[in-house]
Amino acid sequence: MKNLCETVLPVADAFLALQRVEKTECCSKSLVAMSLGEVVAEVSTSYAHEMTKLQRWSEDKTMPLMGVVSEVLRVGQHMVRLRQILPIDLLLSDTNATTTHNIAIQSSLLGTRILNNLSEQSTKYSGSKQDEELRSLILRRALVPYLRMLHRWMHEGILEDPFGEFFIMEAYEPSARSSQQHAISNTQRRHVLRLFPEAATTSLGTNDNDTTTSAGQQEVLAFERRFSINKRMIPSFLEKPSRVSKMIFFAGKYCCLLREYNNTLPDFGESSEGILVWADIDDLRQKIQDTFEIASNAVIQLLFSPSVDLMGHLHSLKSYFLQGRGDWVVDFLDSADALLSKATTTVKVHSIRVLLQGAIARACNTDPYHALIGCSFSNASLMSIVQKMLQEKTDAADGDGVRPSGRLSTGEISARSCVDLLQLEVDLEWPLTLVLDHNTIQKLNNIFRLLMSIKMCERRLSDIWNNNEVLSTFSSAYGIKHQLVQFFRQFLFYSAHFVLEPLWGKLLLQVGQADSIFSLSQALQEFFEKVEKGLTLSSITRFKSLSKIIDISNQLCEIGLHSSTGTTSLIEAALNSLEDSFLKTLTELASPTGADYAQLVTLFTWVDFSGFYGRNRVYTVHHGATSGLAM
Protein backbone atom coordinates (compact mmCIF):
# COMPACT_ATOMS: atom_id res chain seq x y z
CA MET A 1 0.00 0.00 0.00
CA LYS A 2 2.78 2.42 0.95
CA ASN A 3 4.73 1.75 -2.24
CA LEU A 4 1.58 2.18 -4.29
CA CYS A 5 0.84 5.55 -2.75
CA GLU A 6 4.42 6.72 -3.24
CA THR A 7 4.00 6.40 -7.00
CA VAL A 8 1.59 9.36 -7.02
CA LEU A 9 3.83 11.60 -4.89
CA PRO A 10 5.61 13.10 -7.97
CA VAL A 11 2.20 14.18 -9.26
CA ALA A 12 1.32 15.81 -5.95
CA ASP A 13 4.73 17.45 -5.72
CA ALA A 14 4.39 18.80 -9.26
CA PHE A 15 0.89 20.09 -8.53
CA LEU A 16 2.05 21.98 -5.42
CA ALA A 17 5.06 23.47 -7.22
CA LEU A 18 2.96 24.58 -10.17
CA GLN A 19 0.40 26.08 -7.82
CA ARG A 20 3.12 28.27 -6.35
CA VAL A 21 4.09 29.35 -9.85
CA GLU A 22 0.47 30.10 -10.63
CA LYS A 23 0.15 32.29 -7.55
CA THR A 24 3.20 34.36 -8.53
CA GLU A 25 1.60 35.20 -11.87
CA CYS A 26 -0.42 38.07 -10.42
CA CYS A 27 2.51 39.73 -8.64
CA SER A 28 5.27 38.93 -11.13
CA LYS A 29 7.32 41.70 -12.71
CA SER A 30 7.89 39.79 -15.93
CA LEU A 31 5.61 39.43 -18.94
CA VAL A 32 7.37 36.18 -19.86
CA ALA A 33 6.74 34.77 -16.38
CA MET A 34 3.12 35.88 -16.57
CA SER A 35 2.72 34.13 -19.89
CA LEU A 36 4.11 30.93 -18.43
CA GLY A 37 1.82 31.39 -15.45
CA GLU A 38 -1.13 31.31 -17.83
CA VAL A 39 0.10 27.99 -19.25
CA VAL A 40 0.49 26.58 -15.76
CA ALA A 41 -2.97 27.83 -14.80
CA GLU A 42 -4.53 26.11 -17.80
CA VAL A 43 -2.78 22.80 -17.08
CA SER A 44 -3.56 22.99 -13.36
CA THR A 45 -7.21 23.78 -14.05
CA SER A 46 -7.43 20.85 -16.44
CA TYR A 47 -5.81 18.57 -13.84
CA ALA A 48 -8.14 19.77 -11.08
CA HIS A 49 -11.14 19.24 -13.35
CA GLU A 50 -10.09 15.66 -14.11
CA MET A 51 -9.51 14.98 -10.43
CA THR A 52 -12.98 16.32 -9.63
CA LYS A 53 -14.51 14.03 -12.24
CA LEU A 54 -12.55 11.10 -10.80
CA GLN A 55 -13.76 11.90 -7.30
CA ARG A 56 -17.40 12.09 -8.38
CA TRP A 57 -17.10 8.85 -10.32
CA SER A 58 -15.50 7.07 -7.36
CA GLU A 59 -18.33 8.24 -5.09
CA ASP A 60 -20.86 6.43 -7.27
CA LYS A 61 -18.81 3.34 -7.83
CA THR A 62 -16.30 1.41 -5.83
CA MET A 63 -12.83 1.65 -7.40
CA PRO A 64 -9.78 -0.43 -6.56
CA LEU A 65 -6.83 1.56 -5.28
CA MET A 66 -4.76 0.42 -8.24
CA GLY A 67 -7.30 1.93 -10.60
CA VAL A 68 -7.32 5.24 -8.75
CA VAL A 69 -3.52 5.43 -8.83
CA SER A 70 -3.42 4.57 -12.53
CA GLU A 71 -5.98 7.25 -13.32
CA VAL A 72 -4.08 9.84 -11.26
CA LEU A 73 -0.83 8.98 -13.06
CA ARG A 74 -2.55 9.20 -16.44
CA VAL A 75 -4.12 12.56 -15.74
CA GLY A 76 -1.09 13.97 -13.90
CA GLN A 77 1.63 12.99 -16.36
CA HIS A 78 1.52 16.46 -17.96
CA MET A 79 1.88 18.01 -14.52
CA VAL A 80 5.03 15.99 -13.87
CA ARG A 81 6.54 16.77 -17.27
CA LEU A 82 5.66 20.43 -16.93
CA ARG A 83 7.29 20.49 -13.50
CA GLN A 84 10.45 18.97 -14.99
CA ILE A 85 10.60 21.31 -17.98
CA LEU A 86 9.75 24.63 -16.35
CA PRO A 87 12.57 26.56 -14.59
CA ILE A 88 10.65 26.62 -11.33
CA ASP A 89 13.52 28.19 -9.37
CA LEU A 90 13.66 31.09 -11.81
CA LEU A 91 9.92 31.58 -11.77
CA LEU A 92 9.89 31.72 -7.99
CA SER A 93 12.98 33.94 -7.72
CA ASP A 94 10.79 37.06 -7.86
CA THR A 95 9.23 36.21 -4.53
CA ASN A 96 12.61 35.56 -2.88
CA ALA A 97 14.02 39.03 -3.58
CA THR A 98 14.31 40.97 -0.34
CA THR A 99 15.08 44.51 -1.49
CA THR A 100 13.68 46.84 -4.08
CA HIS A 101 17.04 46.87 -5.87
CA ASN A 102 17.19 43.09 -6.01
CA ILE A 103 13.61 42.91 -7.24
CA ALA A 104 14.35 45.32 -10.07
CA ILE A 105 17.48 43.46 -11.16
CA GLN A 106 15.94 39.99 -10.94
CA SER A 107 12.75 41.09 -12.67
CA SER A 108 14.58 42.62 -15.62
CA LEU A 109 16.74 39.53 -16.10
CA LEU A 110 14.02 37.01 -15.31
CA GLY A 111 12.41 36.99 -18.75
CA THR A 112 15.76 36.55 -20.51
CA ARG A 113 16.81 33.71 -18.20
CA ILE A 114 13.50 31.90 -18.66
CA LEU A 115 13.70 32.19 -22.45
CA ASN A 116 17.32 31.03 -22.43
CA ASN A 117 16.38 28.00 -20.34
CA LEU A 118 13.42 27.04 -22.52
CA SER A 119 15.35 27.68 -25.73
CA GLU A 120 18.18 25.44 -24.56
CA GLN A 121 15.75 22.66 -23.69
CA SER A 122 13.98 22.94 -27.04
CA THR A 123 17.23 22.09 -28.83
CA LYS A 124 17.63 18.83 -26.92
CA TYR A 125 16.03 15.66 -28.23
CA SER A 126 14.62 13.42 -25.50
CA GLY A 127 13.30 10.69 -27.79
CA SER A 128 9.68 11.38 -26.86
CA LYS A 129 7.44 13.09 -29.38
CA GLN A 130 5.10 14.23 -26.62
CA ASP A 131 7.98 15.85 -24.75
CA GLU A 132 9.07 17.67 -27.89
CA GLU A 133 5.57 18.97 -28.48
CA LEU A 134 5.26 20.09 -24.86
CA ARG A 135 8.58 21.93 -24.96
CA SER A 136 7.65 23.60 -28.23
CA LEU A 137 4.29 24.65 -26.81
CA ILE A 138 5.81 26.15 -23.67
CA LEU A 139 8.48 28.05 -25.61
CA ARG A 140 5.92 29.35 -28.08
CA ARG A 141 3.62 30.56 -25.30
CA ALA A 142 6.49 32.14 -23.34
CA LEU A 143 7.65 34.03 -26.43
CA VAL A 144 4.28 35.65 -27.10
CA PRO A 145 4.87 38.86 -25.04
CA TYR A 146 8.53 39.04 -26.08
CA LEU A 147 7.70 38.79 -29.78
CA ARG A 148 5.06 41.48 -29.32
CA MET A 149 7.71 43.81 -27.90
CA LEU A 150 10.06 42.84 -30.73
CA HIS A 151 7.38 43.46 -33.34
CA ARG A 152 6.38 46.87 -31.93
CA TRP A 153 10.00 47.97 -31.76
CA MET A 154 11.05 46.80 -35.22
CA HIS A 155 7.93 48.02 -37.02
CA GLU A 156 7.10 51.23 -35.14
CA GLY A 157 10.24 52.16 -33.21
CA ILE A 158 8.32 52.10 -29.93
CA LEU A 159 9.57 50.34 -26.80
CA GLU A 160 6.61 48.79 -25.00
CA ASP A 161 8.54 47.14 -22.19
CA PRO A 162 6.89 47.81 -18.81
CA PHE A 163 9.26 45.58 -16.81
CA GLY A 164 12.53 46.24 -18.65
CA GLU A 165 12.86 42.72 -20.08
CA PHE A 166 13.78 43.70 -23.64
CA PHE A 167 17.49 44.01 -24.44
CA ILE A 168 17.03 47.51 -25.89
CA MET A 169 16.72 50.31 -23.37
CA GLU A 170 15.44 53.84 -23.72
CA ALA A 171 16.96 56.62 -21.65
CA TYR A 172 15.00 59.35 -19.96
CA GLU A 173 13.67 61.93 -22.39
CA PRO A 174 14.42 65.50 -21.29
CA SER A 175 11.80 68.19 -21.58
CA ALA A 176 11.34 70.24 -24.72
CA ARG A 177 13.22 73.48 -25.17
CA SER A 178 11.58 76.58 -23.85
CA SER A 179 12.33 78.56 -26.98
CA GLN A 180 9.72 78.19 -29.70
CA GLN A 181 11.74 79.85 -32.44
CA HIS A 182 11.73 77.75 -35.59
CA ALA A 183 9.43 75.32 -33.82
CA ILE A 184 8.78 72.87 -36.65
CA SER A 185 12.40 72.52 -37.74
CA ASN A 186 13.74 72.29 -34.21
CA THR A 187 11.09 69.76 -33.21
CA GLN A 188 12.20 67.47 -36.01
CA ARG A 189 15.84 67.94 -35.15
CA ARG A 190 15.18 67.43 -31.46
CA HIS A 191 13.47 64.10 -32.09
CA VAL A 192 16.29 62.77 -34.22
CA LEU A 193 19.11 64.04 -32.05
CA ARG A 194 17.79 61.90 -29.20
CA LEU A 195 18.38 58.92 -31.43
CA PHE A 196 21.81 59.82 -32.74
CA PRO A 197 23.60 62.13 -30.32
CA GLU A 198 27.00 60.90 -31.52
CA ALA A 199 26.30 62.81 -34.73
CA ALA A 200 25.63 66.04 -32.89
CA THR A 201 28.97 67.72 -33.04
CA THR A 202 29.29 68.32 -36.73
CA SER A 203 32.58 70.13 -36.30
CA LEU A 204 35.83 68.93 -34.83
CA GLY A 205 36.39 70.21 -31.35
CA THR A 206 34.63 73.15 -29.77
CA ASN A 207 37.09 75.77 -28.65
CA ASP A 208 36.65 78.22 -25.81
CA ASN A 209 37.31 80.99 -28.33
CA ASP A 210 34.12 80.08 -30.12
CA THR A 211 30.87 80.04 -28.18
CA THR A 212 28.65 80.20 -31.24
CA THR A 213 27.03 76.81 -31.85
CA SER A 214 23.85 75.87 -33.61
CA ALA A 215 20.66 75.19 -31.70
CA GLY A 216 20.78 71.60 -32.86
CA GLN A 217 24.29 71.13 -31.47
CA GLN A 218 23.31 72.66 -28.13
CA GLU A 219 20.37 70.28 -27.88
CA VAL A 220 22.45 67.25 -28.77
CA LEU A 221 25.04 68.00 -26.14
CA ALA A 222 22.24 68.08 -23.55
CA PHE A 223 21.04 64.56 -24.28
CA GLU A 224 22.49 61.17 -23.60
CA ARG A 225 22.05 58.38 -26.07
CA ARG A 226 18.36 57.61 -26.21
CA PHE A 227 18.50 53.93 -27.14
CA SER A 228 21.16 51.40 -26.22
CA ILE A 229 21.71 47.65 -26.14
CA ASN A 230 22.09 45.76 -22.87
CA LYS A 231 24.15 42.76 -23.96
CA ARG A 232 23.39 40.87 -20.73
CA MET A 233 19.73 40.74 -21.67
CA ILE A 234 20.02 39.45 -25.23
CA PRO A 235 18.31 36.02 -25.37
CA SER A 236 20.58 33.19 -26.44
CA PHE A 237 18.64 32.55 -29.64
CA LEU A 238 19.29 36.19 -30.73
CA GLU A 239 22.84 36.41 -29.43
CA LYS A 240 24.62 34.67 -32.30
CA PRO A 241 25.37 35.79 -34.88
CA SER A 242 25.79 39.24 -33.35
CA ARG A 243 24.37 40.95 -36.42
CA VAL A 244 20.87 39.70 -35.48
CA SER A 245 20.64 41.85 -32.35
CA LYS A 246 22.17 44.78 -34.24
CA MET A 247 19.59 44.45 -37.02
CA ILE A 248 16.83 44.52 -34.40
CA PHE A 249 18.37 47.56 -32.76
CA PHE A 250 18.83 49.59 -35.94
CA ALA A 251 15.53 48.59 -37.53
CA GLY A 252 13.66 50.01 -34.54
CA LYS A 253 15.90 53.05 -34.44
CA TYR A 254 15.24 53.76 -38.11
CA CYS A 255 11.49 53.39 -37.62
CA CYS A 256 11.60 55.73 -34.64
CA LEU A 257 13.54 58.25 -36.71
CA LEU A 258 11.04 58.09 -39.58
CA ARG A 259 8.04 58.25 -37.28
CA GLU A 260 9.30 61.21 -35.27
CA TYR A 261 10.98 63.05 -38.14
CA ASN A 262 8.19 63.09 -40.72
CA ASN A 263 5.42 60.97 -39.13
CA THR A 264 5.78 58.06 -41.56
CA LEU A 265 6.65 54.39 -41.23
CA PRO A 266 7.97 51.90 -43.80
CA ASP A 267 5.49 49.65 -45.59
CA PHE A 268 6.32 46.20 -44.26
CA GLY A 269 3.40 44.54 -46.04
CA GLU A 270 1.32 41.63 -44.81
CA SER A 271 4.39 39.67 -43.76
CA SER A 272 4.96 42.03 -40.82
CA GLU A 273 2.60 40.02 -38.62
CA GLY A 274 4.60 36.86 -39.24
CA ILE A 275 7.18 37.88 -36.67
CA LEU A 276 4.55 37.44 -33.94
CA VAL A 277 4.30 33.69 -34.59
CA TRP A 278 7.15 31.45 -33.49
CA ALA A 279 8.08 28.69 -35.91
CA ASP A 280 11.80 28.20 -35.36
CA ILE A 281 14.90 30.32 -34.89
CA ASP A 282 15.91 30.32 -38.55
CA ASP A 283 12.48 31.57 -39.57
CA LEU A 284 12.63 34.35 -36.96
CA ARG A 285 16.10 35.46 -38.05
CA GLN A 286 15.00 35.63 -41.67
CA LYS A 287 12.00 37.78 -40.74
CA ILE A 288 14.25 40.05 -38.69
CA GLN A 289 16.59 40.49 -41.64
CA ASP A 290 13.71 41.23 -44.02
CA THR A 291 12.30 43.82 -41.63
CA PHE A 292 15.69 45.45 -41.16
CA GLU A 293 16.24 45.72 -44.92
CA ILE A 294 12.86 47.38 -45.42
CA ALA A 295 13.47 49.89 -42.60
CA SER A 296 16.98 50.62 -43.82
CA ASN A 297 15.77 51.14 -47.38
CA ALA A 298 13.16 53.61 -46.11
CA VAL A 299 15.89 55.66 -44.43
CA ILE A 300 17.98 55.55 -47.61
CA GLN A 301 15.02 56.90 -49.57
CA LEU A 302 14.64 59.68 -47.01
CA LEU A 303 18.33 60.60 -47.29
CA PHE A 304 18.14 60.82 -51.08
CA SER A 305 14.84 62.70 -51.07
CA PRO A 306 14.85 66.38 -52.14
CA SER A 307 14.04 67.47 -48.59
CA VAL A 308 17.29 65.97 -47.22
CA ASP A 309 19.44 65.84 -50.40
CA LEU A 310 22.44 63.79 -49.28
CA MET A 311 24.08 63.93 -52.71
CA GLY A 312 23.74 67.71 -52.85
CA HIS A 313 25.39 68.06 -49.46
CA LEU A 314 28.23 65.74 -50.48
CA HIS A 315 28.97 67.89 -53.54
CA SER A 316 28.86 70.97 -51.32
CA LEU A 317 31.26 69.52 -48.72
CA LYS A 318 33.72 68.59 -51.46
CA SER A 319 33.90 72.22 -52.58
CA TYR A 320 35.07 73.34 -49.15
CA PHE A 321 36.70 70.52 -47.19
CA LEU A 322 38.45 69.00 -50.21
CA GLN A 323 38.80 72.40 -51.88
CA GLY A 324 37.15 71.17 -55.05
CA ARG A 325 36.65 74.83 -55.93
CA GLY A 326 39.91 76.62 -55.26
CA ASP A 327 38.70 80.11 -56.16
CA TRP A 328 37.18 80.66 -52.74
CA VAL A 329 40.43 79.52 -51.09
CA VAL A 330 42.47 82.08 -53.03
CA ASP A 331 39.98 84.81 -52.17
CA PHE A 332 40.01 83.79 -48.51
CA LEU A 333 43.81 83.71 -48.28
CA ASP A 334 44.06 87.09 -49.97
CA SER A 335 41.80 88.67 -47.37
CA ALA A 336 42.84 86.70 -44.28
CA ASP A 337 46.58 86.23 -44.86
CA ALA A 338 47.63 88.65 -42.14
CA LEU A 339 45.31 87.12 -39.54
CA LEU A 340 46.17 83.51 -40.38
CA SER A 341 49.85 84.12 -39.63
CA LYS A 342 49.12 85.35 -36.09
CA ALA A 343 48.72 83.27 -32.95
CA THR A 344 45.22 82.05 -32.14
CA THR A 345 45.24 83.88 -28.81
CA THR A 346 45.49 87.23 -30.58
CA VAL A 347 42.75 86.65 -33.15
CA LYS A 348 39.02 86.21 -32.63
CA VAL A 349 37.62 83.30 -34.57
CA HIS A 350 34.66 85.47 -35.55
CA SER A 351 36.99 87.67 -37.59
CA ILE A 352 38.27 84.66 -39.51
CA ARG A 353 34.76 83.31 -39.95
CA VAL A 354 33.47 86.54 -41.47
CA LEU A 355 36.28 86.58 -44.04
CA LEU A 356 35.83 82.89 -44.85
CA GLN A 357 32.07 83.13 -45.28
CA GLY A 358 32.49 86.25 -47.39
CA ALA A 359 34.92 84.48 -49.72
CA ILE A 360 32.61 81.47 -49.99
CA ALA A 361 29.57 83.66 -50.67
CA ARG A 362 31.38 85.49 -53.48
CA ALA A 363 32.83 82.40 -55.16
CA CYS A 364 30.16 79.76 -54.43
CA ASN A 365 26.88 81.66 -54.40
CA THR A 366 25.35 79.04 -56.70
CA ASP A 367 25.78 76.38 -54.01
CA PRO A 368 22.48 76.23 -52.05
CA TYR A 369 24.33 75.05 -48.93
CA HIS A 370 27.24 77.49 -48.83
CA ALA A 371 25.74 79.34 -45.85
CA LEU A 372 26.13 76.22 -43.69
CA ILE A 373 29.92 76.49 -43.68
CA GLY A 374 31.76 78.16 -40.83
CA CYS A 375 35.09 77.76 -39.07
CA SER A 376 36.72 77.54 -35.65
CA PHE A 377 40.07 76.85 -34.03
CA SER A 378 40.81 73.26 -33.11
CA ASN A 379 42.16 72.39 -29.69
CA ALA A 380 44.70 69.98 -31.20
CA SER A 381 47.33 70.14 -33.91
CA LEU A 382 46.93 68.02 -37.00
CA MET A 383 49.90 65.94 -35.89
CA SER A 384 48.21 65.18 -32.56
CA ILE A 385 44.98 64.22 -34.29
CA VAL A 386 46.73 61.92 -36.76
CA GLN A 387 48.72 60.29 -33.95
CA LYS A 388 45.55 59.73 -31.94
CA MET A 389 43.70 58.36 -34.98
CA LEU A 390 46.46 55.87 -35.79
CA GLN A 391 46.84 54.91 -32.12
CA GLU A 392 43.12 54.17 -31.87
CA LYS A 393 43.37 51.92 -34.92
CA THR A 394 46.30 50.09 -33.33
CA ASP A 395 44.49 49.76 -30.00
CA ALA A 396 41.36 48.48 -31.74
CA ALA A 397 43.40 45.87 -33.58
CA ASP A 398 45.18 44.84 -30.36
CA GLY A 399 42.02 44.96 -28.25
CA ASP A 400 43.41 47.69 -25.96
CA GLY A 401 41.50 50.66 -24.65
CA VAL A 402 41.62 54.11 -26.17
CA ARG A 403 44.57 56.15 -24.96
CA PRO A 404 44.57 59.82 -23.97
CA SER A 405 43.70 62.30 -26.71
CA GLY A 406 46.83 64.43 -26.38
CA ARG A 407 45.15 67.83 -26.60
CA LEU A 408 47.37 70.86 -26.79
CA SER A 409 48.02 72.77 -23.60
CA THR A 410 47.19 76.45 -23.35
CA GLY A 411 50.82 77.35 -23.91
CA GLU A 412 51.08 75.18 -27.00
CA ILE A 413 47.89 76.64 -28.45
CA SER A 414 49.15 80.20 -27.93
CA ALA A 415 52.29 79.34 -29.89
CA ARG A 416 50.27 78.05 -32.86
CA SER A 417 49.30 80.26 -35.76
CA CYS A 418 45.69 80.44 -36.87
CA VAL A 419 46.34 78.49 -40.05
CA ASP A 420 47.71 75.56 -38.00
CA LEU A 421 44.48 75.20 -35.99
CA LEU A 422 41.91 76.45 -38.49
CA GLN A 423 39.15 73.95 -39.21
CA LEU A 424 35.82 74.11 -40.99
CA GLU A 425 32.41 73.61 -39.43
CA VAL A 426 29.16 72.69 -41.11
CA ASP A 427 25.68 73.04 -39.65
CA LEU A 428 23.96 69.99 -41.14
CA GLU A 429 20.26 69.28 -40.98
CA TRP A 430 18.91 66.06 -39.56
CA PRO A 431 18.96 63.23 -40.46
CA LEU A 432 22.04 63.89 -42.61
CA THR A 433 24.22 63.27 -39.59
CA LEU A 434 23.28 59.59 -39.76
CA VAL A 435 25.92 59.46 -42.48
CA LEU A 436 27.81 62.74 -42.23
CA ASP A 437 28.55 62.35 -38.55
CA HIS A 438 31.23 63.84 -36.33
CA ASN A 439 33.87 61.31 -37.37
CA THR A 440 33.24 61.98 -41.06
CA ILE A 441 33.56 65.74 -40.59
CA GLN A 442 36.72 65.20 -38.55
CA LYS A 443 38.33 63.17 -41.33
CA LEU A 444 37.32 65.79 -43.89
CA ASN A 445 38.89 68.42 -41.65
CA ASN A 446 42.14 66.46 -41.53
CA ILE A 447 42.34 66.66 -45.32
CA PHE A 448 41.33 70.33 -45.35
CA ARG A 449 43.93 71.29 -42.75
CA LEU A 450 46.71 69.47 -44.59
CA LEU A 451 45.88 71.08 -47.94
CA MET A 452 45.49 74.51 -46.34
CA SER A 453 48.88 74.25 -44.60
CA ILE A 454 50.62 73.31 -47.83
CA LYS A 455 48.87 76.06 -49.82
CA MET A 456 49.81 78.59 -47.17
CA CYS A 457 53.45 77.47 -47.27
CA GLU A 458 53.64 77.68 -51.06
CA ARG A 459 51.99 81.10 -50.97
CA ARG A 460 54.30 82.54 -48.30
CA LEU A 461 57.42 81.20 -49.99
CA SER A 462 56.48 82.80 -53.28
CA ASP A 463 55.52 86.14 -51.71
CA ILE A 464 58.53 86.50 -49.42
CA TRP A 465 61.32 85.23 -51.63
CA ASN A 466 60.18 86.65 -54.94
CA ASN A 467 59.83 90.16 -53.51
CA ASN A 468 63.04 90.24 -51.46
CA GLU A 469 65.98 91.79 -53.33
CA VAL A 470 68.45 90.97 -50.57
CA LEU A 471 67.74 87.25 -50.72
CA SER A 472 68.15 87.14 -54.48
CA THR A 473 71.89 87.53 -53.96
CA PHE A 474 72.11 84.11 -52.28
CA SER A 475 72.42 81.24 -54.75
CA SER A 476 71.50 78.70 -52.08
CA ALA A 477 68.32 80.64 -51.35
CA TYR A 478 67.03 80.14 -54.85
CA GLY A 479 67.79 76.41 -54.73
CA ILE A 480 65.97 75.60 -51.50
CA LYS A 481 63.08 77.95 -52.29
CA HIS A 482 62.63 76.45 -55.74
CA GLN A 483 62.70 72.88 -54.39
CA LEU A 484 60.15 73.60 -51.69
CA VAL A 485 57.78 75.48 -54.00
CA GLN A 486 57.95 72.71 -56.58
CA PHE A 487 57.39 70.07 -53.90
CA PHE A 488 54.27 71.80 -52.59
CA ARG A 489 52.87 72.45 -56.05
CA GLN A 490 53.44 68.88 -57.14
CA PHE A 491 51.87 67.60 -53.92
CA LEU A 492 48.76 69.72 -54.46
CA PHE A 493 48.51 68.67 -58.11
CA TYR A 494 48.96 65.01 -57.19
CA SER A 495 46.45 65.15 -54.32
CA ALA A 496 43.78 66.71 -56.54
CA HIS A 497 44.21 64.69 -59.74
CA PHE A 498 45.48 61.34 -58.48
CA VAL A 499 43.84 61.00 -55.05
CA LEU A 500 40.81 63.14 -54.32
CA GLU A 501 39.11 63.36 -57.72
CA PRO A 502 39.28 59.67 -58.72
CA LEU A 503 38.40 58.43 -55.23
CA TRP A 504 35.57 60.93 -54.91
CA GLY A 505 34.07 59.73 -58.17
CA LYS A 506 34.19 56.16 -56.90
CA LEU A 507 32.61 57.27 -53.60
CA LEU A 508 29.68 58.92 -55.36
CA LEU A 509 29.13 55.77 -57.41
CA GLN A 510 29.05 53.62 -54.26
CA VAL A 511 26.77 56.07 -52.46
CA GLY A 512 24.36 56.04 -55.37
CA GLN A 513 24.22 52.24 -55.28
CA ALA A 514 23.94 51.96 -51.47
CA ASP A 515 20.96 50.06 -50.12
CA SER A 516 21.57 50.56 -46.39
CA ILE A 517 23.12 52.94 -43.90
CA PHE A 518 25.90 50.43 -43.34
CA SER A 519 26.84 50.41 -47.03
CA LEU A 520 26.93 54.22 -47.00
CA SER A 521 29.21 54.19 -43.96
CA GLN A 522 31.36 51.50 -45.55
CA ALA A 523 31.74 53.56 -48.74
CA LEU A 524 32.88 56.58 -46.73
CA GLN A 525 35.25 54.45 -44.67
CA GLU A 526 36.89 53.01 -47.79
CA PHE A 527 37.18 56.49 -49.28
CA PHE A 528 38.97 57.88 -46.22
CA GLU A 529 41.26 54.88 -45.88
CA LYS A 530 42.52 55.30 -49.45
CA VAL A 531 42.74 59.09 -49.21
CA GLU A 532 44.72 58.84 -45.98
CA LYS A 533 47.15 56.44 -47.64
CA GLY A 534 47.48 58.71 -50.65
CA LEU A 535 48.11 61.83 -48.53
CA THR A 536 50.56 60.22 -46.04
CA LEU A 537 47.97 60.34 -43.24
CA SER A 538 48.03 56.59 -42.66
CA SER A 539 51.67 56.40 -41.54
CA ILE A 540 52.85 58.44 -38.60
CA THR A 541 56.48 58.14 -39.72
CA ARG A 542 55.78 59.42 -43.21
CA PHE A 543 53.44 62.14 -41.97
CA LYS A 544 56.11 63.36 -39.55
CA SER A 545 58.44 63.72 -42.52
CA LEU A 546 55.85 65.75 -44.42
CA SER A 547 55.23 67.91 -41.35
CA LYS A 548 58.95 68.49 -41.01
CA ILE A 549 59.10 69.73 -44.62
CA ILE A 550 56.33 72.19 -43.77
CA ASP A 551 58.33 73.33 -40.72
CA ILE A 552 61.42 73.79 -42.91
CA SER A 553 59.36 75.97 -45.22
CA ASN A 554 58.20 78.08 -42.28
CA GLN A 555 61.80 78.47 -41.08
CA LEU A 556 62.82 79.58 -44.55
CA CYS A 557 60.08 82.19 -44.53
CA GLU A 558 61.30 83.45 -41.15
CA ILE A 559 64.78 83.88 -42.60
CA GLY A 560 63.27 85.84 -45.46
CA LEU A 561 61.34 88.11 -43.11
CA HIS A 562 64.41 88.90 -40.97
CA SER A 563 67.11 88.87 -43.66
CA SER A 564 67.81 92.59 -43.23
CA THR A 565 68.92 92.08 -39.63
CA GLY A 566 71.22 89.10 -40.21
CA THR A 567 74.79 88.88 -41.48
CA THR A 568 75.54 87.34 -44.85
CA SER A 569 77.52 84.45 -43.39
CA LEU A 570 74.80 83.52 -40.91
CA ILE A 571 72.08 83.63 -43.57
CA GLU A 572 74.18 81.52 -45.94
CA ALA A 573 74.85 78.94 -43.24
CA ALA A 574 71.17 78.79 -42.26
CA LEU A 575 70.12 78.33 -45.89
CA ASN A 576 72.61 75.51 -46.43
CA SER A 577 71.47 73.82 -43.22
CA LEU A 578 67.82 74.02 -44.29
CA GLU A 579 68.58 72.55 -47.70
CA ASP A 580 70.48 69.64 -46.16
CA SER A 581 67.62 69.07 -43.73
CA PHE A 582 65.07 69.19 -46.57
CA LEU A 583 66.94 66.62 -48.67
CA LYS A 584 67.36 64.32 -45.68
CA THR A 585 63.67 64.61 -44.80
CA LEU A 586 62.67 64.03 -48.42
CA THR A 587 64.71 60.82 -48.37
CA GLU A 588 62.79 59.69 -45.29
CA LEU A 589 59.46 60.65 -46.85
CA ALA A 590 60.17 58.66 -50.03
CA SER A 591 61.44 55.59 -48.19
CA PRO A 592 60.16 52.50 -50.11
CA THR A 593 58.69 50.88 -47.01
CA GLY A 594 55.25 50.59 -45.49
CA ALA A 595 51.84 49.58 -46.77
CA ASP A 596 51.20 53.06 -48.17
CA TYR A 597 54.25 53.24 -50.46
CA ALA A 598 52.41 51.77 -53.43
CA GLN A 599 49.88 54.60 -53.16
CA LEU A 600 52.61 57.24 -53.06
CA VAL A 601 54.71 56.17 -56.06
CA THR A 602 52.88 58.68 -58.26
CA LEU A 603 53.64 61.52 -55.82
CA PHE A 604 57.35 60.75 -55.67
CA THR A 605 57.45 60.46 -59.46
CA TRP A 606 55.87 63.89 -59.93
CA VAL A 607 58.13 65.50 -57.31
CA ASP A 608 61.20 64.20 -59.16
CA PHE A 609 59.80 64.87 -62.63
CA SER A 610 63.23 66.13 -63.82
CA GLY A 611 65.18 63.23 -62.29
CA PHE A 612 67.22 65.60 -60.11
CA TYR A 613 66.73 63.66 -56.89
CA GLY A 614 67.40 60.35 -58.58
CA ARG A 615 70.69 61.57 -60.08
CA ASN A 616 71.81 62.98 -56.75
CA ARG A 617 70.75 59.84 -54.88
CA VAL A 618 68.25 61.59 -52.66
CA TYR A 619 65.69 58.89 -53.40
CA THR A 620 64.77 56.44 -56.12
CA VAL A 621 61.22 55.70 -57.18
CA HIS A 622 60.42 51.99 -57.23
CA HIS A 623 57.92 51.88 -60.07
CA GLY A 624 57.49 48.14 -59.68
CA ALA A 625 55.32 48.74 -56.61
CA THR A 626 52.47 50.17 -58.68
CA SER A 627 51.85 52.43 -61.63
CA GLY A 628 49.54 54.76 -59.72
CA LEU A 629 47.06 55.09 -56.94
CA ALA A 630 45.43 51.77 -56.10
CA MET A 631 41.75 52.16 -56.74
Automatic annotation (TrEMBL):
GO molecular function (one): microtubule minus-end binding
InterPro entries, A to Z: GCP (IPR007259), GCP_C (IPR040457), GCP_C_sf (IPR042241), GCP_N (IPR041470)
Gene Ontology CC terms: gamma-tubulin complex; microtubule; spindle pole
GO biological process, one term: microtubule nucleation
Domain Gamma tubulin complex component C-terminal stretches: 310-613
Keywords: Cytoplasm, Cytoskeleton, Microtubule
Subcellular location: Cytoplasm, Cytoskeleton, Microtubule organizing center
PANTHER family: GAMMA TUBULIN COMPLEX PROTEIN (PTHR19302), GAMMA-TUBULIN COMPLEX COMPONENT 2 (PTHR19302:SF13)
Family, as annotated: Belongs to the TUBGCP family.
Name this protein carries in UniProt: Spindle pole body component
The species this protein was found in: Angomonas deanei
